[in-house]
Amino acid sequence: MRIAMIGTGYVGLVSGTCFSEFGWNVICVDKDEGKISALHEGRIPIFEPGLNSLVASNVKAERLTFTTDLNHAVKGADAVFVAVGTPTRHGGGHADLSYVHGAAEEVARAMEGYTVVVNKSTVPVGTGDAVERIIRETRPDAEFDVISNPEFLREGSAIEDFMRPDRVIIGTDSERAQDVMRQLYRPLFLIETPILFTARRTAELIKYAGNTFLATKITFINEIADLCEKVGADVHDVAKGIGLDRRIGRKFLHPGPGYGGSCFPKDTLALVHTARDFGSPLRIVETVVDINAKRKKAMADRVIDACGGTVQGKTVAVLGLTFKPNTDDMRDSPSLDIVSTLIEAGATVRAFDPEGMDEAKKLLDGVHWCGDAYATMEGASALAIVTEWNEFRALDFKRVKALMETPVLVDLRNIYNPDEIAAAGFAYSSIGRPNGGTG
Questions:
Q1: Is residue 430 part of a domain?
Q2: What is the predicted pLDDT for the residue at 204?
Q3: Which residues in the chain come in under a pLDDT of 50?
Q4: Which residues of 116-136 are buried (b: 16+ CB within 10 A; e: fewer)?
């Protein structure tokens, strides 16, 4: 089987590489010549644990190649995956489908023989219909099927998610297309992965509904955390108590500064606008979006409160900038609101992230960038942990205290024990613990 993967962003590169690991011949296509040149040189444009070695081994085996020539990649391909970006459109919450539509037109011109065109990008309901129409108008003679095959990759564990997924969703009514997809995913059939065939529009909605439900779950526990602080309860015990109910489950019940990343923010917005367009508004999701936006800004106020109500003329150390550990993704990260608000309030911000510094520098101005965690703490009036990288979980607090002007720790990920930090001589603030988590 031959696969063409249009787009070498996060989804395209991971998916293309994993398909080649299944044994298929994969050509990844991108218009960005710099990105393709880097891949030819063995440099991976994103940070994802294990991806470097997997790319290298499949390139060496000649199953995985990279090109800017879409025509070459698509000709003779059994399946063409469209994995281009669908960012939020400026001036609203709708997904920008211009890259998807452009790719569909180019693919149509290049196809030879029967081809399965697979929407791997996250797209609103009805996008498959539009792609089919574009291809049909561009190539009336073409023999093809358009299907939806949404991705469910978590940044930081994407390879495992592809190789051993909870499920695979394939949206098509075409038996011929189903046969092609069964063959492509045959290694997953062999390990009895649940593979669900649905109508195309159903598959498109499953992706949005899944991400939106998880975003709602995160927002729910964050609001419960705020209530815990008011009533003197511990949010971690509450989360454990409700998570043991199998109908609820324990995942995505960890309080923090709000969700971010490449999926949840744009997908919740897109679903809200899709629902409005169809006259079926999703009030719960609208509220989730509003609460999450306000929460990220409110996290800076926690740091300011821990500094006595003002950070004017004070230094704040910030550890972690990416929206989660094990990625370099800064998209909609809570740190963007937190750091910007602290600087606007008069603070000098010293920051460090193990993988996200290059991306953060493009998005944040006025930050003093540091080479390691301890360098951020020099003369700081407060230390804020924004992203729970493993290397921040075992700080030497004797050293930290000696570096800081004032021993104040604002732990927005609850990675430390309040009693232990208080015993080390720190004023400690966390999320959803009794008395606001102050030790």
A1: yes
A2: 97
A3: 436-439
A4: bbbbbbbbbbebbebbbebbe
Q: What is the CATH number of the domain that holds 332?
A: 3.40.50.720
Joined tokens for residue 227: 């209530």
The model's pLDDT over 87-124, given as tens digits with 9 standing for 90+, comes to 888 767 788 999 999 999 999 999 999 999 999 999 99
- Within a 13 Å sphere around the CA of 196, how many CA atoms are in the beta-carbon half? 14
End position of a domain, from candidates 180, 198, 216: 198
Tokens matching residue 351: 């920051």
Indicate if the alpha-carbon torsion angle 42, 45, 51, 54 is positive or negative: negative
Cα dihedral: 8, 391, 296, 309 (round 10): -150
Count Cβ atoms within 10 A of the Cβ of residue 429 and give its class: 0-12 exposed, 13-18 middle, 19 or more buried.
Answer: buried
Tokens of 370: 């540091």
Interatomic CA distance for residues 89 and 101, integer angstroms: 14
Q: Is residue 362 part of a domain?
A: yes
Question: Which tokens in the block code for residue 340?
Answer: 């910007």
Which whole-number Å values give the CA distances from 366 to 279, 301, 336, 362, 392, in the listed order? 44, 19, 12, 11, 23
The catalytic site residues sit at 263
Residue 412 placed within a domain: yes
Is 413 a domain residue?
yes
Domain count along the chain? 2
Residue 234 burial class via C-beta count within 10 angstroms: exposed 0-12, middle 13-18, buried 19 and up: middle
Q: Tell me what pLDDT residue 436 has.
A: 46
Q: How far apart are CA 314 and CA 175, in angstroms?
A: 65
Distance of alpha carbon 321 from alpha carbon 357, whole angstroms: 8
pLDDT of residue 262: 86
Return d(Cα 290, Cα 270) in angstroms, integer.
14
